[in-house]
Amino acid sequence: MSAQQIRDAATLILIDREGGAFRVLMGRRHAGHKFMPGKFVFPGGAVDPQDERMAISGPLGSQVAEKLLIHTRRKSQDYARALALAAIRETFEETGLALGVTDLGPPPEPPEGVWARFAATGVFPTLEGLDLLARAITPPGRSRRFDARFFVAEASWIAFRAPDVIHPEAELTELVWVPIDEALALEIPNITRAVLGDLAALGPGPWDRARPRPFYRMVRGKPVREEI
After folding, report:
1. Which residue of 138, 139, 153, 220 has the fewest CB atoms within a 10 Å radius of its CB?
2. Domain coordinates of the chain in residue numbers?
3. Tell me: the pLDDT tens digits for 97-149?
4. Element counts in the chain: helices (H) and strands (E)
5. Is the pLDDT of residue 3 over 70?
């Protein structure tokens, strides 16, 4: 039997500090999904080859890119950039929220599909507001396995909100902004609980982008939390 494929993936944790609160955006997955049905999660998904072809208006921070390339087969800046763009694309696809800037007009010649729809909003994606919070590899035996990078960004980077994306038949059927303590009380996967704990431990910031990041994975059959 061949080894189960582990797909590169990216997730985006949006945080809102308005009014002094510290809230995170979470969505409930459709109950019919094979992977984490009915759970509250952060928007995200697998990296797509077209993510490397999308133009950006602001680069990913060098220290963030450096962390993304630790323990990876591909060491190029294009790879780090694609991971970050995947988080933005998946967030737009699942929530209708487009992160970026609007004063430059839409990006030129976007790839077909989701990126073309993103460009049609008039938003130019930027990576400068993204930080890396954590990384996790899905344990063996699950229906799907991902090597997921958990990015975090301020809600102030949301430049467009598409209507009617969240509904009973969508991938995410509910979208909520909740404080971390309330998020921990929701029906969430174990890794989401761990990452929320990491976020809470960081405090309100500002955060040192050269800091170690937690990396969750299985080593010789045991779960470990390393720092990279």
Report:
1. 220
2. 6-227
3. 999 999 999 999 999 999 999 999 999 999 999 999 999 999 998 888 999 99
4. 5, 11
5. no
What SS3 string covers 25-76?
Answer: EEEEECCCCCCCCCCEECCEEECCHHHHHCCCCCCCCHHHHHHHCCCCCCCC
How many other C-beta atoms are found inside a 10 Å radius of the C-beta of residue 177?
16
CATH number (3.40.50.800, 3.90.79.10, 3.30.470.20, 3.40.718.10) of 6-227 reads 3.90.79.10
Say what the pTM is: 0.94
Give the residue carrying structure tokens 């990078």.
149
Nearest to 41 by CA among 148, 183, 181, 165: 183
